[in-house]
Structure formats: C-alpha cells, structure tokens
Amino acid sequence: MTFRGEQIAMVVLPDGMLSNMPAWMSEASAAQFDIHEPPRFSRESLNDLRRVLDAILSQLDDAARTRTCRDAGEAP
What we know:
39% helix, three-stranded antiparallel β-sheet, alpha+beta, 1 helix
C-alpha cells in the first residue's frame, strides 16, 4: 500500500484502532536507530522545518485544487 508515493504499513494499535506508518519503520534495520538525549535537533530547527513543509504542502494543495478546477472547466 502507498500514500503520497511512500510505502506504508497498516498496524493495529493496542486499542484496536488501525493506523498507518512508513513501511521502513517495520523493517529490522529500523531497530538500529537510536534515541538521543538531548535531542540532536533544536526545537527552533524543527519549527523551521515544519514551516517549510507546511508551505510546500500548501503549494501542492493549491496546485491540485487548480488542476481539479481546470479539469472541471471552472475558474480556480
């Protein structure tokens, strides 16, 4: 199964709900990743990354909306 071009795995949570996660997280090699204290990235860096990703996703949403309107013969 894929989502936005990424392979995903469906998992059953302890409460019985279904959830998706990147498929690589279920591979044995993913167990090699360590959690570091303190974190390697500052909160400020992560917030900056979030703003960049939000802007990119917004542009993708706008492009998809424009394409849908164009295909339907409507103005965006």
